[in-house]
Design brief:
It holds the Pfam family MHYT. By secondary structure, the chain is mostly helical. It is built from eight helices and six strands. Helix 1 crosses helix 5 and helix 2 crosses helix 6. The radius of gyration is 19 Å and the shape is elongated. Helix content is 71%, strand content 7%.
Length: 257
């Protein structure tokens, strides 16, 4: 079996992957923070849906496939099953959404942060391993159990810390720090999970189906553009009076339900 390369193009793909994870996490955490102080439940829900799309779609899914552009196996093509790849996207967005709604709706407390962080962290892991299950290579893929567990732990811990930041710290600097931590969670989980992969030689030529990773470039670019312009709109917008009242109420310990 050929040699596995995780950095075919050097540091270009991991650097871009982290940047995309940071961008998606940044918008998602900005939306989550604004949802926390919104007094209108419909607006709050809308912000949390956008946050789930940003973190799950761009911060996790796009990051994964940007990193996978740098993955190759000498002597074998690397192709992807489209339905499973789409499923990995849906799971990332939906599970992140569940975690954010746990934290973003109602009054904040430690149990909500821990629960939301657990769900958000598991969504990173679920997206990664379903995305890897969609991969077709001329060989058999296995995993080191200890490294798999380590990758999941990295994702859960860092995602929990990032969500905690959105509740206790206010300001652009804190949001940037939280997005940086979330980016570490996603990228750290991804490359630890890739290190856990074990590739066994096949007994003969395997007919590969699916599409190459380049097939996903168009939706990746679209997701990034949507997130970028949405973030610009949100960060440049002046907080509404409703949001200022919500923040003041939260500071006094009476966060709006």
């Amino acid at each position: 079996m050929g040699e596995v390369h995780h950095f075919t193009y050097g540091w270009v793909t991991p650097v871009f992957a982290y940047g995309l994870s940071f961008l998606g996490s940044m918008l998602g955490l900005v939306c989550t923070a604004r949802a926390r102080v919104a007094t209108d439940n419909r607006k709050r829900a809308g912000l949390l849906v956008l946050a789930a799309w940003a973190i799950g779609g761009t911060g996790i899914w796009v990051m994964h496939f940007m990193a996978m552009i740098g993955f190759s196996v000498s002597g074998s093509e690397v192709r992807y099953d489209v339905p499973l790849t789409v499923l990995s996207f849906v799971i990332a967005v939906v599970m992140v959404g569940v975690g954010l709604f746990i934290v973003g709706m109602g009054k904040p407390n430690a149990l909500k942060v821990l629960s939301g962080g657990l769900v958000a962290g598991l969504s990173v892991a679920a997206m990664h391993y379903i995305g890897m299950a969609a991969m077709e290579i001329d060989g058999k893929i296995g995993y080191d159990r200890n490294l798999v567990l380590g990758s999941v732990a990295i994702a859960v811990v860092a995602a929990t810390v990032a969500l905690w930041f959105t509740l206790v710290i206010r300001g652009l600097g804190a949001t940037i720090l939280a997005a940086a931590v979330m980016g570490v969670a996603v990228c750290g989980m991804h490359y630890t999970g890739m290190a856990a992969m074990r590739l066994e030689s096949s007994t003969g030529f395997t007919a590969l189906h699916g599409v190459s990773v380049n097939w996903f470039l168009a939706p990746m670019v679209l997701f990034v553009l949507v997130v970028f312009f949405a973030m610009m709109n949100l960060t440049m917008a002046v907080p509404t009076a409703e949001e200022e009242r919500g923040y003041a109420s939260r500071q006094m310990g009476n966060s709006p339900a």
